[in-house]
Design brief:
The chain is of the alpha/beta class. The chain contains nine helices and 13 strands. Bound molecules: guanosine-5'-triphosphate and magnesium ion.
């Protein structure tokens, strides 16, 4: 699609920068390789780097642009310099793989997340919970895609679909296979022009294959699965945004092995709404749902209204989220104190 302006690549006036600078242009980050970016102004796509001043002001890795971000750039022939990041409307984030106290942003300003899970050996309700919690936490609407339907009998597919429906009754589910054109059409029908969709899910579940099908051509590399493990080979290595002919925007992401939840309290709450609603009716506000008298959650577990596996998944995510988030908060406070101390030492030196 030939784009003409930033509105075609998902911009709307709510992103408008608070101060106008005629020398800077609004652009969207389309791809990222470490600190090398590719940005699009609507009219052109350019390589981009961040300015020295921008780099100097970075406090955490979250201050760096990610795919989907809106930025202010100056254009110098073939290169754009990124000067500022515009406030994000939504994010998809996980606990950093390198540090237990840091959050890693995956994409920003995404409207919907297609959470792709294979109906084969990849199928895992607890992992689905994680992706849903991450999406809800970042203000992204989740849509579940159960893929590779060609590998299973209809009854098996229905059985797995019902498991998902009973755990997440409010979330749309699409059953798909790259061999079934009607399922690709169903995904297309679920998409709207100028909205941004990211595809997330384990490596090898068929995200890039689905995107190629949506575009009707090979825009992304895919690979064959390892015959011995039936696992993906991490074919997609970076995130990238594409504009579909019909107008929606699509971001492909590499499969994620580790999916630690962090800063996602609200997301966990939204994912397990049924449990939280029951918990509200417990006799004691700080009920642990273990042995307390008048525990509405325990009653619902006993009557089967809440599934034991679902409750176990909730407990695990809640505990992990709370640990990771408090570690992140502690570290940020320490970093802040350290920053203050350095500034104090510098100013004392200057005054001497
Ligand atoms: N049977 C079957 N195989 C599929 C389907 N979709 C994808 N595959 C195969 O699964 C393998 C992995 O597909 P990819 O699209 O590369 O998977 P991915 O999710 O993008 O993987 P990463 O980029 O590593 O995250 C390829 O061999 C595809 O041909 C499907 O609907 N049915
Ligand atoms: Mg891929």
């Amino acid at each position: 699609m030939k784009t003409v302006d930033i509105y075609d690549i998902g911009y709307d006036d709510s992103f408008l920068p608070d101060e106008e600078n005629p020398l800077l242009t609004i652009a969207r980050v389309f791809a990222q390789h470490k600190e090398q970016f590719s940005i699009c102004t609507g009219e052109i796509i350019l390589s981009a780097e961040i300015s020295g001043k921008y780099r100097y002001c970075i406090e955490t890795s979250e201050d760096l642009p990610v795919v989907g971000d809106w930025v202010l750039v100056s254009i110098h022939d073939e290169l754009a310099i990124i000067h500022r990041l515009l406030p994000r409307r939504s994010i998809l984030a996980r606990k950093s793989v390198h540090s237990s106290s840091e959050r890693q942003l995956i994409v920003a300003n995404v409207d919907y997340a297609f959470i792709v899970q294979g109906l084969d050996r990849d199928f895992n309700l607890n992992r689905l919970d994680r992706y849903i919690a991450m999406s809800c936490a970042g203000k992204i609407i989740p849509i579940i895609i159960l893929n590779k339907a060609d590998l299973l009998a209809t009854e098996e597919i229905e059985e797995k679909k019902q498991l998902v429906v009973s755990r997440h009754p409010d979330i749309s589910i699409i059953i798909s296979s790259f061999t079934q054109d009607e399922s690709i059409q169903e995904i297309k029908n679920a998409m709207q022009a100028k909205k941004t969709y990211c595809f997330v899910g384990s490596s090898g579940v068929g995200k890039s294959t689905l995107i190629n099908k949506l575009f009707g051509k090979e825009i992304l590399i895919t690979t064959t699965l390892s015959a011995s493990t039936n696992k993906g080979q991490h074919t997609t290595t970076h995130r990238q945004l594409f504009v579909m002919n019909e107008g929606p925007l699509v971001i492909d992401t590499p499969g994620m092995r580790e999916l630690g939840v962090i800063g996602a309290m609200e997301g966990v709450e939204n994912t397990f709404k049924k449990i939280y609603e029951k918990a509200d009716r417990c006799k004691f506000k700080d009920c642990t749902h273990l042995n307390e008298v008048g525990c509405a959650v325990k009653e619902a577990l006993e009557s089967g209204e809440i599934n034991q596996d679902e409750f176990a998944s909730y407990k695990k995510l809640q505990k992990e989220e709370s640990y990771n988030s408090s570690t992140m908060l502690e570290r940020r406070q320490k970093d802040k104190q350290f920053g203050k101390m350095v500034k104090q030492v510098m100013s004392n030196k200057k005054n001497r």
